[in-house]
Amino acid sequence: VRTKPHLNIGTMGHVDHGKTTLTAAITKVLAEQEPGGANHYVAFDRIDRAPEEVERGITITIAHVEYETPTRHYAHVDMPGHADYVKNMITGAAQLDGAVLVVSAQDGAMPQTREHVVLARRIGVEHVVVALNKADLAEDEDLLDLVELEVRELLTRYGFDGERVPVVRVSGLRALEGDPVWTQRVLDLLAAVDEHVPIPPRRLDLPFLMPIENVLTITGRGTVVTGAVERGTLEVGDAVEVIGLGPAVSTVATGLETFGKPMARAEAGDNAAVLLRGVKRGEVRRGQVVCLPGSVRPHTRFRADVHVLSAAEGGRRTPFAANYRPQFHFRTSDVVGVVTLDEGVTQVRPGAAASLTVELGQPVAMSPGLGFAMREGRLTVAAGTVREVLD
Ligand code: GDP
């Protein structure tokens, strides 16, 4: 029985700014809190690494840490930087109720800091708390003040409330080493998350939808798909449909688990594993969605509004023209598409806002408002929102 509201949070920020170290520090600091002690913080279920995505020959590992504060239950996702970080972020961001933006006090905002902030905003992360990390290395407070100011301005520029965003000066490394002063700062950061990130309206009344992150086969039981429930609820025995990318599969959810524990019901915000009756491994794959039958349809053509990233945001250096063919990332899917520009527009420059018509090579489950990223290899070209579905 769930007694506290559940939230999903995650770390984002430039490579080497300390995301993974901070996640490890949070886990360690919470694990050392006295049960029932003054803070009532509990960390359980250390780190649970998702299995490799063998099917596509790439490794997508996302570490989940689960913990409770006095008022809430959190699933915290760290998307390691060594893999294709942005791809993992697109997978995870739609599910995040809030994010901890990790900025190294030594380096300040870097291209990936801006790239992640742009994407977070488009893909639906509404609340950010800043961990001004590596504060142990700063020789004076003036430098920290400067970086803080820069980060606040950056957040404001991309549509967050930069004035009000909490900025907590931390040292993930020193907290991990057990230093009491820096340990307290990590607790301060968590308290800031508790205070600043509101309990999201759980989209429980909407039809069930869960993007598939991984497909596993459990010997003797069948095919299991895992992901974070985007909306609605699912109970054991409910009929579901798996759609997008290929032929639709209709079946029944015969089992449900979250963090390795069986449950009767999964709801928006939960990380879930769903056992699908009579489905073979090859019939379903990452990038599809599991949904209430008939509640959403796959589409190949749509109109979109995009923000084209500049080079300083980690984007292209040169414009793109009509018939440009980048990859489109929606939730957990990655599909090639062809871009058509509006009449009279011959090219789109980095840094510009544009409206585009897109034709995808494979259908994707979508409706207006869905966020996506346009990428070329590992370069994020644009972040966009579906405005209108065509066919
Ligand atoms: P990530 O790529 O953002 O996940 O960064 P990591 O957590 O892997 O950290 C990158 C490097 O910065 C590692 O060598 C860490 O030991 C170091 N580092 C991380 N946090 C801190 C910190 O608070 N202070 C100092 N001095 N070094 C840190």
UniProtKB/TrEMBL annotation:
Keywords noted in UniProt: Cytoplasm, Elongation factor, GTP-binding, Hydrolase, Magnesium, Metal-binding, Nucleotide-binding, Protein biosynthesis
Domain Tr-type G: 4-202
Nucleotide-binding keyword on record: yes
GO cellular component: cytosol
Entry-linked InterPro entries: EF-Tu_GTP-bd, EF-Tu_GTPase, EFTu-like_2, EFTU_2, P-loop_NTPase, Small_GTP-bd, T_Tr_GTP-bd_dom, Transl_B-barrel_sf
Molecular-function GO terms, alphabetical: GTP binding; GTPase activity; metal ion binding; translation elongation factor activity
Superkingdom of origin: Bacteria
Subunit structure: Monomer.
Name of the protein in question: Elongation factor Tu
The organism's taxonomic lineage, starting at the top: Bacteria, Bacillati, Actinomycetota, Actinomycetes, Pseudonocardiales
Gene that produces this protein: tuf
